[in-house]
Amino acid sequence: MDALLQILSMLISTVNMLIIIWFIIGLLFAFNVIGRDNQFFVQVYDAISRLFEPVLAPIRRILPDTGSIDFSPMVLLMLLYAADILIRSAAGH
Fold first, then answer.
1. For 35-44, what is each residue's pLDDT tens digit?
2. What pTM did the predictor assign?
3. Using an 8 Å Cβ cutoff, are 73 and 45 in contact?
4. Cα separation of 20 and 74, whole Å?
C-alpha cells in the first residue's frame, strides 16, 4: 500500500510540473519571447492544453469570471498539492 501511495504522489508531482511548464510556455508566447512559429513549443503547449482542458473546464465554470486572467491552473495546483499532502500523511511520511 505504501508503494501505491508513493507512486500516486509521484504522479501528482509530474502533473504539477506539466502545469508549470504549460504556464511558462504560455507566458513566453504572451510576451513574444518565443514566437508562435516555433513548432516544438506550439506542439508541447497544445498537447498539455488538450491534456488538462477536461480537468480545467469544470474549475473555470466554478470560478468567477476575472477577465483575461485564468486562475484555474492555480486552483488545480492547489488541489493537487492538497491531495499530495493527504497522501503523504496517509503513508506516514
1. 999 999 999 9
2. 0.86
3. no
4. 9
